[in-house]
């Protein structure tokens, strides 16, 4: 909770009133600029709702908003992004947070139970948002829109009590009386769509989707994955699932219904009774209105909120002197997620004005009020579709309304669409050239806009005229949009293929044809389009020709200019008979006409190619009908004369919304041994799902707590001439500016610390990179600190252009020193290997890009000064040890004066191993100096600027090989971009080498160069170095196969390690595993066998399809891990309960769960036979650098097993102490001594019930290899470059899993994170060193859009291995490498496209081999398939017809 603000004044026409989890909340003086999320977290102390991105793009902040209409007596419920919604905007609404669903005290909701039971929570940070998404879907599926008034107390409840038990409806008439295990009206597809707008970085989504679809009426129990409700899929029954009963949910409270009904009645009677009053307010006619003036006495800044139901009041507010240039009209405030720098003084809520909420049909046109939400417009269109179906006037999917609704469902995400207004979307497009999806649709249907101002003045403008205005004159507002749908419904019969398309045809000779297009990184939405378009044509059709009568062709999403209609093309085609030659001429004209709109785009060639392909796809069905002499579009155009699928049917297939996912987990039957090898529910999963799990930023702020914000440099590679904080220091609420000058005597300017290398905490004389912090501003609130940080002035002396790439660094000699043992690696004689080769590829090149961590919880810390020159820091970190050492050095105090506490981490992936230290040290330095608590939580943009990520690489290689594909020698020089500081970069070559050794190269010669650039420092990220090395190895093998014309799997098989070669490359037979544990050949052969039939199916598909191509790839992985020492302390309390401390930190990997299992297993000799092992009370607690020293670092996938072994040894000590007592007491007795009785006896005998162990692995067995194989099949749309992952199969050897459910989750999560690296996540910087990907709008971690439609994971049934802890093996990182199968499969699909597998397809002009560097973005894929592929096809058609 943030500190209270002084010197504030507020006048409000009445208190803000709303319900929060069923309880009444009144706020007399609300801040107009405060978001709902800030109120929930900082004032109501409901911290289950999280801040993830602040843009509405991740779903962590979701709440359920319910609004009541006193006229219709209906309630509408929807999930919304509380990070965007303004607090004042929820006046009169009911808000349900995750705390309102269920809790430890009141009982968990069935959603929370199923999320936990399906193992759908790992780090848990995203889980509350997932639950709210699903909750909203369930509520709407059950039709909870007509509330029965309840009897909640009408008295005010303090906001601090808002987390109390949710109100439970006594009657429940509007809720199902009988608990339901499934909801009959909910389909599996709709259930899975519930989380379209949510991001999870841990799980890979499959278990979350299982939890969602478990509620669906059509769910197949066998399709539900591993869970804690039944032991196997064969024994699954729906009845075993926790039932859902809406009767227990928070309903719309009676007090709010009464209030809103009373306001409505007062509004109606006000004209007759001026003296009426509502709750003491003298103006009932305006009781719904709310005006708040909020003034900051220190700064004089005044903010105003105007909420009204009157247009005249809006115009009055706009005409006021203070409003000029300072006012913003808001409905859902969703634009603030994109335009973050907006800071309006006056906010005018227009979301309650009847004239702006109109949604009605008039003479066949649909009039849409500007304040109507996009979601509500979609609902209205679907009603029109349903109504036309009922009247048998058109099939449900055949209306223009269907085409519009289908496209709009891909705009943003459901949570944003619930609040985003149609008018707001158009205004953003008009004023800021926002890449709107709505504008091209409205242009194509001939929409008009109606703008108004005071005095009854109005104008009607075409959509084009509206866009060309650029900015409405002051005082004018958009009132409505008219969609003239009558033009498309007057010809009677209507039909359509799948997709955003509508075609209508007169029974005689005329027809209409409407279709929309969008190509985006995510097909289901939550991503801006690369290009969008919408076309309408009216045609005259005869048996052999098609004449164009009228056209509207609109294109948008140019990335710098608004959408346009191509009038020259329209004019050229109108009246013409469609022919291939005419179409080709029109394409040439189209390209020329679109050039001006694309002049600002970085992807102009790609976008122009998309435009051509959209255009051609639209007209080709009409053209095909002329070729074939068929009746045309009426018969569906299923194929052309060559038997090849035509453009329309292929492209339609791509537009299908795929949300039906399936998975299968094959887990070996392992005999449970006191919880070991059991698929046990994750220990804290339920409290995570309930929002009760406490993360660092959830800890209540101590008294007098301050808030810090970084001041970052805006230039890279620049000398700092002067840092002037004076403007910031004079800002409201600012306490201090802390910089390197404030480091205490004896301390040091130390930030991150790793592997003995320090980096500066603050830049003092030189800015290394854009975002390099020079200090922090400390203020009384986060908002004040962030605002003031922007006022700190930094003057620079620019020396040179920044180094932003590997080539620049090499040219300028900007390199880090690499230890000799890592910089060069040789195995065998490479020159001899080359002499034995029949073929050689020389000086080839392969690159990998960077990847950002995108942990859901950004970097955060809370520092509290303590007595005796000590300090306590709560930090989200992967090593209390490293942070303790670094902070001790920074402050110049002993290690024992620094206490680091970490309970849990909301995702780390290596980004909180060392990169967290700069945040913690900055907070601690400020707290140490000011002697007050200081905390900081980085916004997503700052986190992305400062924290770096995965190392980019560039590899130049020469490889020799024989004619059968056996490689005889490889020489490679690998360049790595380490960013501005060393971190672990000098040691990363070791990991790259280990993964490059996955194949038997015959002989090997590697050299590494680590570059210093003026970019954020690169550090460990999940599978650091290993991922790059594995991809480089696979790329080289593919190059060999392509050169020889061999199947790549054949070449992989030829170069797979034998036990002998693996032992040579990895130097130790035990590391490899010996005959018994060298499982890679078995898994490889098994997977190849399984995929044989699928390979044939892919070949058949590719031969029959022109525009869609499939690819199949199988790859192996070998991953070396190293076990690190770990401490543990096990304490048994006198009541028999147990507390365990370990050095490892819970990141979501299930460490606490496995430790709990290991504890019970270790105490097995003391537990009475027959006792249920899970009844032993074990609690694992937070990592604490004072309570348990030398915790090490949680990394390398081995911390769980190391912690388990330390716990096992501690338990062994306790057993040695307690077992003699147990045996002594049991002498002569027929019964065993119960656990609690044993502890009571031990207490009486003064036995030490605490054991502390620091486990160190044996040098000979510390390192070992992990093996896995993955096969992936993809489908590539060659016209857009989009990739659909059809299926992924994984076989992975993790030994005898300690917890198969946890390990399955790790395997799937790692694989999907790898999909991000290989497909969707791209980091770009400009030549100034500025990062261009700064949030969810521009950086795309995988969502359910990007995961395999079918996901099969098999855990190999491995035997006992005495040198592995509990015979288990690591699984957190190695499966990441297997995602390379996705990238490789994409290459196979591109090869099929370039090879011209079908007659008439465009052949490659660039040779057979090509390099596709990750990520395989849509642009890169389409470039390799051919940007002019469609044009070549049409030209070939034209030549045939001539």
UniProtKB/TrEMBL annotation:
The keyword ATP-binding does not apply. PROSITE patterns: 2FE2S_FER_1 (PS00197), 2FE2S_FER_2 (PS51085), FAD_PCMH (PS51387). The active site is at residue 1373. It holds the Pfam family Fer2_2. Residues 14-101 form the 2Fe-2S ferredoxin-type domain. Residues 298-488 form the FAD-binding PCMH-type domain. The keyword Oxidoreductase applies. Keywords: 2Fe-2S, FAD, Flavoprotein, Iron, Iron-sulfur, Metal-binding, Molybdenum, NAD, Oxidoreductase. It comes from the Eukaryota. InterPro entries: 2Fe-2S-bd (IPR002888), 2Fe-2S-bd_dom_sf (IPR036884), 2Fe-2S_ferredoxin-like_sf (IPR036010), 2Fe-2S_ferredoxin-type (IPR001041), 2Fe2S_fd_BS (IPR006058), Ald_Oxase/Xan_DH_a/b (IPR000674), Ald_Oxase/Xan_DH_a/b_sf (IPR036856), Ald_Oxase/xanthine_DH-like (IPR016208). One of its GO terms (molecular function) is FAD binding. FAD binds at residues 421-425, 437, 478, 518. Its cofactor is FAD; [2Fe-2S] cluster; Mo-molybdopterin. [2Fe-2S] cluster 2 binds at residues 123, 126, 200, 202. [2Fe-2S] cluster 1 binds at residues 53, 58, 61, 83. Mo-molybdopterin binds at residues 878, 909, 1022. Belongs to the xanthine dehydrogenase family. PANTHER family: ALDEHYDE OXIDASE 1-RELATED, XANTHINE DEHYDROGENASE. This is Uncharacterized protein.
């Amino acid at each position: 909770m943030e500190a209270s603000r002084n010197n504030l004044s507020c006048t409000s026409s009445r208190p803000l009133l709303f319900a929060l989890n069923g309880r009444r909340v009144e706020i007399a003086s609300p801040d107009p600029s405060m978001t709902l999320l800030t109120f929930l977290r900082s004032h109501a102390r409901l911290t289950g709702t999280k801040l993830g991105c602040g843009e509405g793009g991740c779903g962590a902040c979701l709440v359920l908003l319910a609004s009541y209409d006193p006229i219709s007596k209906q309630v509408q419920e929807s999930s919304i992004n509380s990070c965007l919604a303004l607090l004042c905007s929820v006046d009169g609404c009911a808000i349900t947070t995750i705390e309102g669903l269920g809790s430890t005290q009141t009982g968990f909701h069935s959603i929370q139970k199923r999320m936990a039971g399906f193992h759908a929570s790992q780090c848990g940070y995203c889980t509350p948002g997932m639950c709210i998404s699903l909750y909203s879907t369930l509520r709407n599926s059950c039709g909870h829109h007509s509330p029965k008034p309840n009897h909640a107390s009408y008295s005010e409840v303090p906001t601090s009590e808002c987390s109390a038990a949710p109100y439970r409806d006594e009657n429940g008439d509007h809720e199902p009386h009988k608990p339901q295990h499934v909801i009959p009206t909910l389909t599996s597809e709709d259930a899975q769509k519930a989380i379209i707008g949510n991001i999870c970085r841990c799980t890979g989504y499959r278990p979350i989707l299982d939890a969602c679809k478990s509620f669906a009426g059509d769910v197949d129990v066998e399709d539900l994955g591993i869970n804690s409700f039944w032991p196997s899929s064969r024994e699954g029954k729906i009845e075993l699932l926790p039932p859902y009963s809406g009767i227990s949910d928070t309903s719309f409270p009676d007090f709010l219904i009464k209030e809103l009904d009373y306001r409505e009645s007062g509004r109606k009677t006000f004209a007759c009774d001026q003296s009426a009053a509502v709750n003491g307010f003298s103006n009932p006619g305006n009781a719904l209105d709310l005006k708040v003036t909020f003034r900051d006495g220190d700064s004089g800044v005044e903010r105003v909120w105007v909420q009204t139901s009157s247009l005249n009041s809006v115009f009055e507010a706009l005409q006021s002197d203070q409003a000029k240039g300072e006012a913003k009209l808001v409905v859902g405030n969703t634009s603030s997620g994109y335009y973050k720098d907006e800071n309006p003084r006056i906010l005018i809520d227009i979301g309650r004005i009847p004239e702006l909420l109109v949604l009605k049909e008039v003479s066949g046109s649909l009039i849409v009020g500007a304040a109507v939400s996009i979601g509500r417009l979609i609902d209205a269109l679907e009603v029109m579709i349903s109504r036309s179906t009922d009247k048998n006037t058109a099939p449900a999917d055949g209306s223009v309304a269907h085409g519009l609704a289908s496209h709009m469902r891909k705009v943003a995400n459901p949570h944003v669409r619930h609040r985003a207004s149609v008018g707001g979307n158009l205004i953003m497009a008009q004023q800021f050239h926002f890449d709107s999806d709505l504008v091209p649709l409205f242009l194509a249907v001939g929409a008009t806009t109606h703008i108004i101002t005071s005095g009854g003045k109005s104008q009607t403008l075409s959509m084009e005229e509206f866009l060309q205005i650029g900015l409405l004159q002051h005082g004018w507002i958009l009132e409505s949009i008219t969609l003239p749908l009558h033009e498309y419904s007057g010809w009677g019969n209507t039909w359509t293929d799948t997709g955003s398309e509508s075609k209508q045809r007169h029974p005689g000779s005329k027809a209409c044809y409407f279709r929309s297009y969008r190509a985006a990184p995510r097909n289901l939405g939550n991503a801006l389009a690369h290009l969008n378009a919408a076309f309408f044509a009216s045609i005259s059709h005869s048996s052999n020709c098609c004449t164009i009568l009228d056209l509207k062709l609109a294109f948008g999403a140019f990335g710098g200019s608004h959408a346009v209609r191509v009038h020259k093309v329209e004019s050229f085609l109108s009246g013409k008979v469609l022919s291939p030659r005419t179409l080709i001429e029109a394409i040439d004209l189209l390209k020329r006409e679109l050039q001006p709109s694309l002049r600002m785009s970085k992807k102009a060639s790609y976008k122009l190619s998309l435009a051509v392909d959209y255009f051609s796809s639209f007209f080709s069905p009409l053209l095909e009908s002329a070729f074939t002499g068929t009746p045309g579009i009426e018969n569906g155009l299923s194929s052309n004369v060559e038997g090849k699928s035509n453009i329309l049917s292929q492209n339609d297939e791509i537009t299908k919304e795929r949300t039906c996912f399936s998975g299968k987990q094959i887990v070996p039957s392992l005999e449970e041994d006191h919880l070991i090898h059991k698929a046990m529910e994750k220990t804290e999963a339920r409290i995570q799902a309930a929002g009760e799990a406490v993360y660092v930023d959830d800890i209540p702020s101590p008294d007098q707590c301050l808030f810090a914000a970084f001041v970052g440099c805006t230039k890279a590679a620049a000398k700092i001439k002067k840092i002037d904080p004076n403007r910031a220091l004079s800002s409201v609420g600012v306490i201090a500016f802390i910089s390197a000058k404030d480091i205490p005597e004896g301390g040091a300017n130390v930030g991150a610390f790793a592997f003995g290398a320090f980096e500066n905490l603050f830049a003092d004389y030189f800015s290394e990179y854009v975002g390099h912090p020079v200090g922090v501003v400390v203020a009384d609130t986060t908002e004040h600190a962030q605002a003031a940080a922007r006022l700190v002035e930094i003057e620079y002396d620019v020396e040179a252009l920044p180094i932003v790439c590997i080539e620049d660094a090499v040219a300028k000699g900007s390199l880090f020193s690499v230890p000799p043992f890592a910089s060069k690696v040789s195995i065998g004689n490479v020159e001899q290997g080359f002499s034995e080769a029949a073929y050689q590829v020389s000086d080839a090149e392969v690159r990998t890009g960077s990847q950002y961590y995108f942990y859901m919880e950004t970097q955060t810390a809370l520092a509290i000064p303590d007595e005796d020159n000590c300090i306590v820091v709560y930090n989200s970190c992967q090593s209390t040890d490293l942070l303790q050492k670094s902070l001790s050095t920074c402050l110049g105090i002993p290690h024992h004066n620094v206490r680091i506490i970490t309970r849990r981490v909301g995702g780390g992936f290596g980004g909180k191993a060392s990169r967290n230290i700069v945040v913690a040290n900055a907070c601690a330095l400020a707290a140490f100096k000011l002697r007050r608590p200081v905390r900081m939580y980085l916004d997503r943009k700052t986190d992305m600027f400062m924290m770096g990520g995965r190392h980019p690489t560039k590899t130049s290689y020469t490889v020799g090989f024989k004619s059968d594909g056996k490689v005889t020698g490889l020489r490679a020089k690998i360049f790595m971009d380490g960013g501005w500081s060393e971190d672990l970069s000098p040691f990363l070559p070791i990991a790259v080498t280990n993964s490059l050794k996955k194949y038997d190269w015959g002989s090997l010669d590697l050299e590494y160069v680590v570059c210093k650039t003026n970019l954020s420092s690169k550090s460990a990220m999940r599978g650091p170095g290993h991922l790059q090395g594995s991809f480089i190895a696979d790329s080289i093998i593919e190059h060999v196969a392509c050169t020889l014309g061999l199947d790549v799997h054949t070449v992989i098989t030829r170069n797979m390690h034998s036990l002998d070669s693996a032992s040579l490359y990895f130097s130790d037979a035990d590391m490899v595993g010996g005959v018994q544990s060298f499982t890679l050949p078995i898994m490889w052969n098994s997977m190849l066998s399984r995929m044989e039939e699928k390979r044939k199916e892919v070949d058949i598909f590719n031969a029959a399809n022109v525009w869609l191509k499939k690819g199949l790839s199988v790859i192996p992985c070998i991953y070396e891990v190293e076990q690190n020492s770990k401490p543990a302390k096990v304490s048994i309390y006198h009541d028999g309960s147990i507390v365990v401390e370990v050095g490892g930190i819970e990141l979501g990997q299930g460490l606490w769960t496995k430790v709990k299992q290991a504890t019970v297993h270790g105490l097995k000799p003391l537990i009475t036979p027959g006792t249920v092992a899970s009844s032993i009370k074990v609690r694992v607690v937070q990592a604490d650098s004072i309570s348990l020293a030398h915790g090490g670092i949680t990394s390398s996938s081995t911390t769980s097993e190391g912690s388990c072994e330390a716990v096992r040894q501690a338990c062994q000590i306790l057993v040695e102490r307690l077992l003699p007592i147990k045996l002594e007491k049991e002498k002569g007795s027929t019964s065993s001594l119960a656990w609690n009785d044993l502890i009571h006896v031990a207490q009486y005998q003064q036995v030490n019930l605490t054991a502390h162990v620091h486990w160190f692995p044996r040098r000979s067995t510390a390192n070992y290899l992990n093996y896995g194989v993955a096969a992936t099949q993809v489908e590539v749309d060659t016209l857009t470059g989009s990739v659909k992952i059809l299926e992924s199969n994984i076989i992975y050897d993790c030994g005898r899993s300690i917890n198969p459910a946890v390990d399955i989750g790790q395997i799937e999560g790692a694989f999907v994170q790898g999909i991000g690296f290989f497909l969707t996540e791209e980091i770009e910087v400009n030549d100034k060193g500025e990062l261009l990907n700064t949030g969810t709008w521009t950086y795309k971690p995988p969502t359910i859009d990007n995961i395999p439609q079918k996901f099969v994971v098999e855990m190999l049934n491995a035997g006992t291995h005495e040198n592995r802890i509990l015979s288990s093996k690591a699984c957190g990182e190695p499966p990441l490498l297997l995602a390379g199968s996705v990238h490789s499969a994409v290459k196979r699909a591109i090869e099929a496209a370039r090879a011209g597998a079908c007659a008439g397809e465009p052949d490659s002009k660039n040779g057979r081999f090509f390099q596709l560097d990750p990520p395989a973005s849509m642009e890169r894929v389409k470039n390799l398939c051919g940007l002019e592929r469609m044009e070549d096809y049409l030209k070939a058609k034209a030549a045939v017809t001539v």
